[in-house]
Amino acid sequence: MLINHRAAKWLAAIAPGANIAARNNSVLGVLHAVKSGIGIAPLPTTIADMDDDLVRILPPVPELTRGWYLLTHPELRQTPRIRAFFDFVVEKLDMVRPILMG
Predict the structure, then answer these.
(1) Is 81 a domain residue?
(2) Domain membership flag for residue 96
(3) Confidence band for 1, pLDDT divided at 50, 70 and 90
(4) Does 37 share its domain with 83?
């Protein structure tokens, strides 16, 4: 479990008496702990779903989803290369949405 992460707060809210066996400060550390058999953990679907050694036991948790933002300086927004990149990302977003959202 990531220390001070919203996943830790979510777990404390839904399972106040949970016995936390390990804490970590990186997603990869949590991933390796789970793969070594230490227990279960909320992991980003973009990482966990790509690993055949892991089994999803819960659906994606709405409280743990996050928004994605594509930003640029206002004066660059209409620059052709920036506009082309934004258009490309928006066009391809539907293709990668299942990976990003689980």
Answers:
(1) yes
(2) yes
(3) low
(4) no
Residue ranges in 15-79 assigned as alpha helix (H): 27-35, 45-48
Helices (H), the chain: 6-14, 27-35, 45-48, 80-101
Q: Which residues face 2 on adjacent strands?
A: 24
Give this prediction's pTM. Answer: 0.64
Q: CA distances (Å), 60 to each of 7, 13, 39, 82, in order?
A: 12, 17, 18, 32
Provide the domain limits for residue 55.
6-63
> For residue 1, which of 36, 31, 46, 35 has the smallest C-alpha distance?
31
Is residue 59 domain-shared with residue 73, that is, in the same domain?
Answer: no
Domain assignment present for 1: no
